[in-house]
Amino acid sequence: HWHGQKPPYRQDGVADRNIPLIAAGESRGYDYLPTPGTHWMHSHGGLQEQALLAAPLIVRSAEDLAADVQEVTVLLHDFSFRQPEEILAGLTGGAGGHDMEGMGGMPGMAGMDHSGMGDNGTAMPMTMDLNDVEYDAFLANDRTLGDPLVVRVERNGRARLRVINGAASSAFWVELGELRGTLLAVDGNPVLPVTGSSFPIAIAQRLDLIVDVPTGAFPILAQVEGKTQRTGFMLASPGAAIAKVADVAPSTAAPVDLSLEARLRALNPIPDRSPDAVLTMELTGSMAPYLWGINDHLWPNVDPPVIRAGQRVVLDMQNRTMMAHPIHLHG
Predict the structure, then answer these.
(1) In total, how many domains does the chain have?
(2) Residue 299's pLDDT band (boundaries 50, 70, 90)?
(3) Are strands 150-152 and 230-236 parallel, antiparallel or unpaired?
(4) What is the domain extent for residue 214?
(5) How many Å apart are CA 265 and CA 192, to the nearest integer?
(6) 28 within a domain of the structure (yes/no)
(7) Are the beta carbons of 267 and 208 closer than 8 angstroms?
(8) What does pTM read for this prediction?
């Protein structure tokens, strides 16, 4: 699947839906007009994405090619020595089968969509379910902070960080430490500049950050929401010593929220126009059983809305669960 691209739907890469699977030993060509930006490609077959079958997919515009900036592309992953099938079995096998860290209330109940009424008729507060799986490591370009990627940047140079969250089920906070960054694009879409030193990145999301790098070595870290675990890489001027950085942070990271989205403004917004249709999509499901749907319909037993070519449609996504769900359009 060419994540972030807009190919004809039969070339979208959804396994065994729009086109048959690629058989062992078979090859297949794809031909479409690429969309510039920071994107990525990954398997859409079974649980293969958890097995790290993914790679960056960078499409450079003419402006990108002319820019006097050093590009650094980083792909984040969550890694387990367990097979993906074993991880899924732990999630679907009942409350005792999955990691309960970051979950509140009774085991197996934190992700459920229900009113949470107590014996006295008052509402019981529910806690977000942040992390279902206990991973063995978190990776930046397949490396941990024990042996991180070190990118040498010329003294007082400028770098464009193309950060891709290719994790199967982990969201991060990208921490620039002593540096300040300017966000120029999200998911390959140019935005009005947003400055800061800490940026949330959800599952499958991409951030383009410009940083000016003085003399020295500077860790760029990605800490998992709701955890102390982190990964990252180093930006360093020539000859700068590289200090060891612990893969455990001093404090737990906050949940990834919508604070960044609230600040985003498209550099090239679509023309203002009233929508022809507003479709409500309720994200539904529960941790026990571990089933998730849209408008209470589970794949493949879905009830797709019908729209017409040329319509402007607003999708009103309402998350009725206590778990975050990454959503993006296919086809």
Answers:
(1) 1
(2) confident
(3) parallel
(4) 35-82+135-263
(5) 6
(6) no
(7) no
(8) 0.88
For the domain that residue 239 is a member of, what is the CATH number?
2.60.40.420
Judge whether 320 lies within some domain: no
Question: What's the pLDDT band for 126 if we cut at 50, 70, 90?
Answer: low
Closest by CA position to 7, among listed 26, 37, 23, 30: 30
Burial of 120 (0-12, 13-18, 19+ CB in 10 A): exposed
**How does pLDDT run across 252-269, given as a tens digit for each residue?**
999 999 999 999 999 999
Q: Taking a C-beta distance cutoff of 8 angstroms, is the pair 169, 80 a contact?
A: no
Residue 306 predicted with pLDDT over 90:
yes
- The answer to whether residue 120 scores a pLDDT higher than 70 is no
* Strands 198-201 vs 291-294: parallel, antiparallel or unpaired: unpaired
Q: pLDDT tens-digit profile of 161-203? A: 999 999 999 999 999 999 999 999 999 999 999 999 999 999 9
Task: Return d(Cα 201, Cα 183) in angstroms, integer.
Answer: 12
122 is a domain residue: no
Find tokens 């010329």 and name the residue. 154
Residue 96 lies in a domain: no
Position 148: which residue type? P
β-sheet bridge partners, residue 117: 123
